[in-house]
Specification:
Blueprint: H1 2-22, H2 27-44, H3 57-60, H4 67-84, H5 89-97, H6 103-118, H7 123-141, H8 146-159, H9 168-179, H10 190-206, H11 208-211, H12 218-226, E1 230-235, E2 259-265, E3 268-270, E4 284-289, H13 291-300, E5 323-330, H14 346-350, E6 353-358, E7 378-384, H15 385-390, E8 397-399, E9 405-406, H16 413-428, H17 434-447, H18 453-459, H19 462-481, H20 483-492
Helix pairs in contact: 1-2, 1-19, 2-19, 4-7, 4-9, 4-16, 4-17, 4-18, 5-6, 5-7, 6-7, 6-8, 7-8, 7-12, 8-10, 16-17
Length: about 500
């Protein structure tokens, strides 16, 4: 019967690998199916190992409580906290500027910075953080961003090879080694990891540029980096960050990535160039900018939705951890089409703030509330997640799937960065076990409001959870049935 269990284990693993490679089934379904097959095998055909101990179901599902898997999930939540607060955005941009005017040097510094960061953080948030930085850098230095994205992905993977927390596989192997009496320190794999990363980096910088096809350059790249431009409006009240801002050379540099189109003051319109102007309390500034620019303005507190009044039935949701920005499209036949933003009733109907309008054709320099909506217009809206989800059934405004994104809580970026630094420091110095420091750090991220429970839940990667848990079940079955010893003996022979 021992041979039957061994070969049955081999068969289940082989079928699982084939199912993964075929890509015909969802990864989660294959992982659950593999685990179910092992549970059925040892439940229907009980098996006792060489010590006479039966293989129990709790041994097969123990992988889901593996400390390494818990650490991986906790670090994913920590990474989401860094992303939600934009804690790594400024360091990434500083690294890009450190390269100077040379495109090659700027690109190299940016990519190597991503590799360094991925040694302490999961490579997925690292890539997400550096993609917009690379896109802007490509537009400024006149090279194709598409040729830098794959090197970014590869270098982030290589950087993760240099420390224990750099990748989930490192944590799993370290956990197995610890159970077998071999302690693996935080930097024990750094030396061999750096050698492999250096070899990979040489290939990426010297060979990959000759393999990757040349993409678009020049104006087209700059237009792509600029993104879709929305027209919005900012009302300057008491204590507003824009209050007292002076114009220079006809523009307002303090607006950063927002472009002023019109200033309305006491019923009078002022058009650019804005010579010798100072923004005063009560001014309404009509601006254009990308979705990212509006989100940054909301995060800084310099853009406050002002197109809707509070009411008992429809209270205003102020920008905060639960505030999301999403894109919607005015559908053909929409009751909002042909009406101005002021009279369209979007706020009262859907409970969302209108932040900006984007249209393929040219729009006049008028206040946001006076823009007349047309079918096909993209409306940038802001609200809590509940109100945005309720728009899915709307036939007047089509909510673009996956467009909702939380406004970065930049005022808490330093908290997220300190938490991350403490996790790395305590893990590197062995003051606290990695699993403890990562879980505590993730809990503090949520407790301090760096990210919401919903954001933490989205950071929980069920594919990693199910894949690792079911793979540990397969490893347990191999070990208990003697399959692992059989493979090792065959390899030695």
């Amino acid at each position: 019967m021992a041979d039957f269990h061994t070969y049955a284990t081999f068969a289940i693993i082989a079928l699982t690998v084939v199912a993964y490679v075929s890509d015909r089934f969802a990864l989660e379904a294959v992982a659950i199916g593999s685990l179910a097959a092992f549970l059925a095998l040892f439940a229907l055909f009980p098996y006792a190992n060489g010590d006479g101990a039966a293989v129990r179901p709790e041994q097969l599902v123990a992988g889901f409580a593996n400390p390494a898997l818990v650490t991986v999930i906790a670090l994913l939540i920590v990474g989401q906290g860094l992303f939600a607060t934009d804690a790594m955005d400024q360091p990434a941009r500083i690294a890009a500027k450190a390269g100077g005017a040379s495109p090659v040097r700027a690109l190299a510094v940016t990519l190597l910075s991503a590799a360094f960061l991925s040694a302490f953080l999961n490579n997925t948030p690292v890539v997400v953080i550096f993609i917009p930085v690379l896109t802007v850098l490509a537009a400024q230095r006149n090279f194709s961003a598409s040729r830098a994205l794959m090197p970014l992905s590869f270098l982030s993977i290589l950087g993760g090879m240099t420390t224990i927390i750099g990748s989930s596989t490192n944590l799993l192997v370290a956990g197995v080694a610890q159970r077998n009496g071999h302690e693996v320190g935080f930097f024990d794999i750094t030396a061999p990891g750096l050698m492999l990363a250096a070899a990979g980096a040489l290939y990426i910088f010297l060979v990959m540029p000759r393999i990757l096809r040349r993409g678009t350059r020049g104006g087209e790249e700059r237009r792509r980096a600029a993104g879709a431009q929305f027209i919005g409006e900012i009302t300057v009240g008491a204590g507003h960050p824009f209050l007292g801002m002076e114009s220079r050379a006809g523009l307002f540099p303090g607006l950063k990535d927002l472009m002023p189109r019109l200033i309305i003051r006491r019923g009078m319109d002022f058009l650019p160039p804005f010579e010798n102007m100072v923004i005063s309390e009560g001014d309404r500034v009509v601006v254009s900018g990308t979705r990212r620019a509006f989100m940054n303005a909301l995060a800084r507190g310099s853009a406050t939705p002002s197109t809707r009044e509070d009411s008992e039935d429809n209270p205003r949701v102020k920008p905060g951890p639960a505030y999301h920005v999403a894109e919607t499209v005015v559908t053909p036949g929409s009751r909002h089409a042909g009406r101005t933003v002021r009279n369209a009733g979007i706020q009262s109907t859907h409970g969302v703030d209108v932040l900006g309008i984007q249209r393929k054709s040219r729009m006049g320099r008028v206040p946001l509330a006076d823009i007349r909506l047309e079918p096909g217009d993209t409306v940038l809206v802001g609200a809590d997640e509940q109100h945005l989800l309720s728009m899915r059934d709307s036939h007047d405004l089509l909510l673009l799937e996956w467009s909702a994104q939380a406004v970065p809580q930049r005022q808490k970026a330093w908290i997220a960065f300190v938490i991350f630094a403490l996790i790395v420091t305590t893990a590197a110095t062995s003051l606290v076990p990695i699993v403890a420091s990562s879980v505590i750090g993730a809990a503090i991220m949520i407790a301090t409001g760096c990210l919401t429970l919903q954001q933490a839940a989205r950071a929980f990667d069920r594919q990693i959870f199910l894949l690792v848990g079911s793979s540990i079940a397969a490893a347990t079955a191999l070990e208990q049935t003697g399959g692992a010893k059989l493979i090792a003996d065959g390899a030695v022979m």
